[in-house]
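Quick question, first post here. What does this chain look like in 3D?
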Amino acid sequence: MPAKTLSEELREAPGAISRQSQQLAAPLAALAARLQRRPPRLVMTCARGSSAHAATFAKHLIELYLGIPVAAAAPNIASVYHRRLRLKDQLFLAVSQSGRSDDLVESAAMAREAGALTAALVNATDSPLAAVCDIVLPIGAGPEQSVAATKSFVASLAALLRLVAMWAPDDLLPAALDRLPQRLATAAELDWSAALDNFAGAPSLITIGRGPTLAIAREAALKLKEVTNLHAEAFSGAEFLHGPVALVSTRYPILVLLPTDAAAEGLRGLMADLRGKGAALFSADPNGATPDGALPVLPSDHPATDAICLIQCFYAMLPRLAERRGIDPDRPRHLQKITRTR
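> Answer (accepted):
Ran it through. Tokens below.
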């Protein structure tokens, strides 16, 4: 049987999300019970690549809904410098599709030895990372053959939402998660071809998000590099004004991924400023129409799931953009499915 394409696999995400709740029910309940019994004062995330962007999403959710600060681990502190951090009674959350990157495994082992509660959010539940953690949370994406992770990234975001919904808890999140599979299926059919000509001919591209869409902007920039060989850099809307705004010109298209919460107002103000500076601006705004450069998105439902739907829209455009640039989206150069670092 031929390997599935990126286009085929991203459309499997709704099914994975539908199946995920049953697979996660028991381990999430066990983790939430331990967290509620002994709440951590810090959550440390540990991840690479797309999983690091999922960890950025987790940071936003945990800090917003629970008020607990979240920090990203530098895995080489454990794997290269062999330093143990003071993590007793804190939560160490590792996120990985394969669970086979040596630096993540060594970091999780260090955290567990230091007295942290360790949890691994992994697609491969028989992986070394899963083996060294106290609790294993299956992403439940199923086999993913495409080198560029799409289905597993979307499933990681949904799993993190389920964790926060059970830990917080939040009355609105469970219902939004129930609606997410159908919304993802619809999002994958939206047409972002209006951006193709501009993106395909650009030497570089900027993606901007804030709040729940900062992780989405970072993931979009990574996938532009991986799948289309197009250099892209992601910024928060606030960060962009601290220097990178000097890059604004018609040569560098800007994709703004708007959230549907309080962070949207500031991004709309930034967009007005960028238009005044002559930027080649494209926007994805679930909360209503925007001027020229608007890309179609789903109506707003919940800020967290709206953000997930934005990356699904973006993913659906990627293969067409790669082909427009003369690149096979299913054979990205220099990449392999499992990346091991130390």
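The radius of gyration is 19 Å.
The longest helix spans residues 13-37.
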